[in-house]
Input
Amino acid sequence: MMKRLYLILILLALGYSLMALEITAFRTEELSRFLGGSSPYETASQLSSRGVEIYYYNELSMICGLNPQLNQDYSELNSTRIPSPSRSERLYLVTKLPDRELPTGLDIVLDLGSSVLIRSTLNEEALTRQIVHPFVVFDLAPMKFNRSEAVPSATLQETRTSILQMTQAVSADSVLAFIQALQNFQTRYALADNRLAVATWIKNQFLRFGISNAELFPFTWNNTDQYNVVATIPGTVNPDEYIIVGGHHDSITGTTPYQFAPGADDNASGSVAALEMARVMMATGFQPKCSIRFMTFAAEEFGLWGAKAYANHAEANDLQIRLMVNHDMIANSNENPATWRVRLMPYEGSMPQSDYAVQQTEEFTTLNAVFGSANSASSDSYPFWQKGYPVIYFFEYEFCPYYHSDLDITANLNPTYCAEVIRASIASTAGYSMMPATPQNVELVDAGNGNQLIISWNPSTDTDISYYNVYYFTQGNPAIGPFPVTDNSYTVSGLTEGVEYTLQVASVDAVGTESYRISRTGTPQVIPAMPTEFNETPILGGIGLDWAPNTEADFAGYILYRSLVPGQIGSPAHTGMLTEPTYTDTNVNSQDGYYYYTVIALDLSGNPSPYSATVSSRPITLDRGVLIIDETKNFTTENLFQIPDQAADDFYLACLGDLPSQQLDLESFEPLLRLADIGVYSSILWHGNDASEMDYVNIVKDQLKAYVAAGGDILFSVIAPSLVTPNAGNDPFSSACMGFTGVDYSTAARFKYANSAAPGIPSLSVDPLKAPASMNGHIFRVEGMIPAAGANTLLTFGSDYGDQQTQGQLNGLPVGLHKQYGEGEVVTLSFPLYYMMQDQATALVQHVFTNIFGESTDNNDPGLSPTPMLSLSTAYPNPFGQTTSFSISSKDSSSPVNIGIYNLRGQLVKTILNDLLTTKTSLLSWDGRDDLGRACATGIYFIRAKQGTDQSSRKLVLMK
Output
């Protein structure tokens, strides 16, 4: 039976990588030394700013996604390559538990110290039956990084009074009653039928306290409706800033969770923290300056799905989350109350928040706060941390011995201890909520004199803010300050040239409450900093260049140098001085080869910065003919899907005939293919004739997409497009450019014919000399493609077998598609032309490149066979911006000649001539305007000449 497989499945079934990015784990300490980061957070943030995707990190390891080129930058470091999971597999991050060994038989990919990364074919529900440990699906979502902040070191008296009032109102009896009420549901298992009833009961408690906006936040997991609960006390000054306070309300056991999963400690206690804090704040009339949003999360035990859903919602809606406070298992303690301890689970990037929680805990409770393992993926704080939000996570010091069992009941917990943890949380939350709004758009610039840094921020619209405090320090030293400022900038003087400083600014309200501090780092220098993040972008007829702006206070401008020789600086590419970090070089062509650019910054005294890194590029000109790109792996002997390099080269050169072409072998081309490498060519013939490492298209698809959008044309002839572009259903390159959204495939199907399905397209058959004798003139691994909207079928699958036979089950499905994207055209063949008859393959290639792509030799045209009666010259200049000229020659002086300019849709734009030629050769021109005198848009056009039955055509590129 034929199986419909989307592209990802084929790739996985054949055991090839799914991703353009390579999942790589580095040792955090070694990576930090290599990059000069002072902490794992800074190291991860640096990597993220360089285009590396960070999926998880702790003090031992950092798991990253890098493209092969970036991976080369870190090749000298010790690393572990993590193979991408197959479609039937998942990666899970599993947290280790005290006194609970991981079961044998787990496929552990990486040991991270406090957790392990495993590979499994089990879904979440099945995994809970195999392990009791907390886990989360490792979904390869890149982490977000926000700048680290510092928190005030003291709480002012007015806020202290409110906090003391609230901590005294927290009741162990109330806590116990809430926990018992949740336990009375018998189960809160996420797949049990009572999950809506549980969430509704929690919502009703918030309503009972007087929070009238309490509501459910529904989401879907595992084809079930799940419900978070949300209730918000609005802020009096900053209502659009939120502190999220919560814990999950679902429970689980390893026995009969559908019937009984009491979950008193795990995690009725955490949900009750939100309930009790809301009750107390409403009862005492507490009015926070920012909004406090109480939440309980669903489906945590299956991988934090409720918290994930809300963190995604917050990111998508740009919610301003000041802090997320999480509670998970906070009711177990057998210690003497005099020595009670609570564990704060710290997160890199949120250490100031955890430090603040320690401060508040020790000031307002009897608890001793200690830190647990960092960056825990075991609870609902984790998805918020992944999104870059600051988090605090409260967790009991003594791990509950009744975890995930029928004995996790109120009789076995300590409500007095739980109430004390809630007091610590209410003190932290209230203190944080009373801070004024932080300064916005904080920037740090170098004064340029070697001893000053200038920190600035936007003036606050918050009338509650009276002034700002500025601090500064060097690494490992205490902060100097505060320096009170009523303006919106401050200059720190007396600094040492070349030393890195951290400057901080905080808002201060009328009663002296300080916001948390926003930090920026900088180094005072006399000369400007070297321009960084230097990028090149080929455009039609030019090269766009940009770099990160210099921020020195005495910055004057830039000089951009250009050379035709690598390793040489060359001369300025412009006159005068550039004042913006961008330049478009249009004094370029395709004949000079690559251009090499270097930029420096200058200050007002004329001091130059060091030279930037050099970038090379070429413009998009589309005037150098056809580029043959060989992705086929080079073999020395010939078998099916294993071809000697020279044999493949000769075959495709023969297909192009007299069309001007050049070859590029990806086996020997370093580094990755760029738009600058291909943009000078009008068309590309991309062939891949083996099933080995056919992921190069996927790696460089953004470059290819830009090439086609600009007017370049590509013919892909590859084995299994699913090897080329995995995830086609969600990949705009596959659907928008290559023309397919998926494939039909069977390993038993046999392919012999590519049957014409469009006018002018020749049919092809497999060369019997290249097919295995056992397959009766057929080959396999040819897929039927599922056309995307707007794609035209050119060829269909054919065999000598009937449609009902296993070998013929793909008969009639598309194996050749044509799709237009932007200004360009793409033809995708799901079979390698190399295995077809040479003359038939040549006929197809000639038709595609002349009739569809508009390529021509000196005297041919893109629509018909060449004729000596009518000849149209190459236009010059081409590309052009104002006017281009060309000549027309004809041996027939008695018949009128019609010459017009047409766009890619075949529409007449401008009539150039419709008359007899007065001379054998006439020189004509076009000024880039249509018949109404309107300027035409930048793009691809064709000159088409017709005289009787004779026709000729040339491609033009108009640039404005």
About this structure: The CA atoms of residues 216 and 229 lie 5 Å apart. The chain has 20 helices and 50 strands.
